User: Fold this.
Amino acid sequence: MSLDNGSFFLSFYKDPGITSAGALDKLKRALKLPKAGHCGTLDPMAEGLLVVAVNRATKLMRFITDEPKRYVGRFEIGKKSPSYDSETPVEVTAPDADTSQVDWQRILSIFSGRIRQTPPAYSAVRVDGVRSYRLARKGQLSDLPPKEVVIHSLVLKTIDRTTVGFTVECSKGTYIRSLVHDIGLVAGTGAVLVQLTREAVGRFTVAEAVRLDDLRTAPDKVERAKLPLPAFLRRFPSITVNETLFWQLRNGVDIRSLGLPLLDGPNTVLYNDEPLFLLEKEGKECRYTAYFGSD
Assistant:
């Protein structure tokens, strides 16, 4: 029984001005990928790392989307917009706003650790089954419920009188536009996001990412941007099984009855030194997550 070697994760660079879905479609056409999904959306104005799961790697996308993210970007104070960025009409709220007059240390202390933020009205959050941004474009702004996120680190650097550069490491689900908007509220000036790059998702970094142009001109770079499924699976604790246990797992026998020494969380199961199953243990409960061998 062999591993399906046509499955992998790809570090892909999304250019600004295109949706994540649009960028994924271009990638799938260029590489003739039958099945692929991106692990975490980037706004059209944003650029940077989009981790793409190919074929059976799509079964593991949540392990990527759950990872912390790192972003760099710029925002401007003294302004506001409905979308919290420069993609919708920007209104000047404080013509005399000056970065030198803002207490940035206070802002850093407020936006640290666990915080609550409200998603932008122009976001993919569903309201009664409809994407919030679709309602917002019709002028039907909704009060979205706040959510808790974690800011692991935030670095701010003033660039000029109204522009601030930032680097932020944060939990999944963090809206950088909301973070900028809330910073503007605390500063008393308003603020809009004007540029954003995602640099990292967990262990994946933008340094490894391949661009659309590279798909035609740099096949070696494309190969280096791939993380084969076996390499990803070996990040988890692993156990090795014999042929009897392999076939019992393959036939869906109750995992608890097999006496496997599983640790809490995901566990990779090796057979003939190949990672073929991912099982998860949660307390006394065990479940099959995925099988990666050839059928």
